[in-house]
Write a structure and sequence with these properties.
Helix content: 55-70%
Radius of gyration: 19 Å
Number of strands: 0
Number of helices: 14
Order of helices and strands: HHHHHHHHHHHHHH
Shape: globular
Largest sheet: none
Structural class: mainly alpha
Distance between the termini: 22 Å
Length: 304
């Protein structure tokens, strides 16, 4: 297989009817590392909305149990990508997410915004640092994938196209990005978690590099100091160089799922999807979408 053969395969698919297949090929074959980094940045961005950052701080989950919350979030989202919306694993993951969300007072507006970050931030990241830009088919499939996920999560008025996701995100951030001690606390805890994955000598460098990837409105909301332009140039340039190097590598022959990432550290002996996350309220309802209305997509090859 040549470097662009999978893109040719993607372009032969229907990005609406085959959205799960297209999204899976993009996220697990073409850009698994980039999607992991972009989704980390997407979630980090949500802490700058005070109603979100404050709630996460009040639960203490992202502060006292940062690694577990990171692992659980990645694994629950990953189960749907890997197995599909109509699979038993996908349904369990969505049920768990719904049970957790219904235990807290979370507005549809905030839920919709978080969903928007999952669509918009990966495109921005990959177009800036990936080994190639996303095709229109991949952008469309990503929007359809997360619109479908949003409906399964019972979110009202989910955007239906990338352009709608992007407009909503931009407007929401302009209205709601603001300083909040809870949001800063969660942001600091997340930075500390990511720094803990590397030797101590690299921890401060990791924090500086991470802040260099944040835009000015996000830095202002957290009251982080603005990085020196030279640091921003070096960090972003290094990521672009990585993308050019990856372009020269042979294409991936097997999918790489989030559960295979070395950053997932909390379940060395395996895990059950139904046990992931918090369990604050027993007996919460499951996914509000009737699964019989959605067609099953073929699964990509699995390492297991």
């Amino acid at each position: 297989m040549q470097r662009f053969d999978r893109l040719k395969e993607i372009q032969q698919l229907d990005p609406v009817g085959d959205f799960l297949t297209v999204y899976r090929l993009t996220a697990t074959y073409e850009f698994p590392w980039d999607y992991t980094r972009a989704l980390e940045l997407a979630l980090f961005r949500t802490y700058a909305v005070p109603s979100i950052g404050r709630l996460l701080a009040e639960t203490n989950e992202f502060v006292e149990r940062s690694q577990k919350r990171y692992d659980d979030t990645a694994l629950l989202l990953d189960a749907v990508v890997e197995h599909g919306f109509d699979s038993s694993q996908g349904r369990r993951a969505i049920r768990r997410i719904n049970q957790m969300h219904r235990s807290y007072d979370i507005s549809d507006d905030d839920m919709r915004y978080v969903l928007c970050t999952f669509v918009v931030i990966p495109r921005r990241w990959i177009d800036s640092y990936g080994w190639r830009r996303l095709s229109e088919a991949e952008v469309t499939a990503s929007a359809v994938y997360y619109a479908t996920l949003g409906r399964h999560l019972g979110i009202a008025d989910v955007p239906s196209s990338f352009e709608e996701f992007e407009r909503y995100l931009k407007a929401y951030e302009e209205r709601h990005f603001a300083w909040d001690p809870g949001g800063r606390q969660v942001a600091d805890a997340t930075m500390d978690l990511m720094a803990s994955w590397y030797p101590t000598a690299l921890a401060s460098m990791l924090r500086a590099s991470s802040r260099a990837l944040l835009d000015d409105p996000l830095l202002a909301a957290f009251r982080y100091p603005r990085p020196h332009p030279a640091v921003r140039f070096a960090v972003r340039g290094a990521l672009r160089l990585r993308g050019r190097a990856v372009r020269l590598l042979p294409p991936r022959s097997r999918p790489h799922y989030a559960r295979q990432n070395p950053e997932i550290k909390g379940y060395p002996n395996g895990y059950a999807v139904s046990a992931l996350g918090t369990h604050p309220v027993p007996g919460a309802r499951g996914c509000p979408v009737p699964h019989g209305r959605l067609r099953v997509e073929p699964l990509a090859p699995n390492d297991d």
